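Lab meeting, item 3. Inverse folding demo.
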């Protein structure tokens, strides 16, 4: 159901109004980081609009809703990059357009969801552009992307850009607890996933607890004498052949570090343990909390978040992390 998609209530309302007033655009770009929920949102929108009950959300029981839930609705087409090469080829776009032109359909309106639309090869994008210039009637396209600048400008100019909202940590925490996550894990994952539920559910497999143990160890042992070595160690550990993976590793480590220092700040202020993100490691953080003022700890937490933001903006991590570690020893 649309109501189950976290963080997008306002966007969903806007879409519903547009649909009811018959002024849905030809094409939308749903833009937002991986895991924010672009695919579920697009599918739930289409499902709701096609629901035979015609309410403000999918009824989940009519034949249309059931087909949509099983991924075999004839009026919902989903395209994604090929497993091999992770690209959308011109042939794939061509086949999609053929389907739109010739395939029999049951409903009044059709929806095409293109995942990772920025993975269209140039010829594919140009071919798709022609479709947008002379669009088939009663079709709405949803182009999903985490890298909006990588989309062809001429395509972007023909679409309405919709920026997905980050979900509130407490909503993600509840979402995880509803899925039988242990309370302490739900709290930690929700705090680390940066408002992206899809990221929260993959944290278990990404070994976040082991990662946190490493980050914590480094943080509590940090001194002026070893800051340089500690920074070099982190850079080496997180290095991957794929630069986006390296960046993601740094991003995750810094996110953990920020929650730990935030907890230390709260402890320095004498706050209750129930407010901590990492209550299970509070005793290890205690010396750090005791050695600094809340003001300094807060400033250091902000520096960590700022470093994380810069890394996401493609600034070279080497200098950023060395500088951050020096600042953290003050
Ligand atoms: Zn229905």
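The presenter then showed the designed sequence:
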């Amino acid at each position: 159901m649309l109501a189950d998609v976290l963080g997008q209530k306002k966007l969903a309302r806007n879409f519903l109004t547009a649909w009811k007033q018959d002024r849905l655009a030809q094409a939308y770009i749903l833009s937002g980081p991986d895991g924010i929920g672009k695919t579920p949102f697009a599918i739930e929108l289409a499902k709701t609009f096609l629901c035979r009950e015609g309410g403000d959300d999918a009824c989940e029981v009519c034949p249309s809703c059931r087909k949509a839930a099983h991924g075999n609705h004839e009026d919902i087409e989903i395209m994604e990059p090929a497993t091999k090469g992770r690209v959308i080829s011109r042939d794939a776009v061509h086949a999609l357009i053929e389907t739109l032109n010739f395939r029999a359909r049951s409903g009044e309106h059709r929806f095409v969801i293109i995942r990772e639309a920025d993975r269209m090869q140039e010829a594919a994008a140009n071919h798709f552009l022609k479709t947008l210039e002379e669009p088939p009637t009663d079709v709405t396209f949803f182009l999903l992307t985490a890298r909006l600048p990588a989309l062809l400008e001429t395509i972007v100019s023909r679409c309405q850009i919709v920026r997905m909202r980050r979900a509130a940590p407490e909503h993600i925490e509840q979402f995880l607890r509803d899925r039988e996550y242990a309370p302490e894990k739900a709290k930690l994952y929700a705090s680390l996933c940066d408002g992206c539920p899809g990221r929260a559910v993959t944290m278990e497999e990404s070994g976040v607890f082991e990662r946190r143990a490493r980050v914590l160890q480094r943080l509590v042992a940090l001194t002026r004498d070893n800051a340089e070595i500690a920074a070099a160690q982190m850079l080496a550990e997180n290095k991957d052949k794929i630069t986006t993976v390296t960046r993601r590793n740094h991003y995750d480590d810094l996110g953990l570090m920020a929650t730990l220092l935030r907890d230390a700040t709260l402890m320095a202020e004498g706050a209750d343990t129930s407010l901590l993100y990492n209550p299970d490691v509070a005793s290890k953080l205690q010396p750090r909390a005791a050695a600094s003022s809340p003001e300094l700890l807060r400033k250091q937490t902000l520096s960590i978040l700022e470093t994380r933001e810069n890394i996401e903006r493609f600034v070279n991590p080497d200098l950023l992390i060395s500088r951050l570690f020096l600042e953290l020893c003050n």
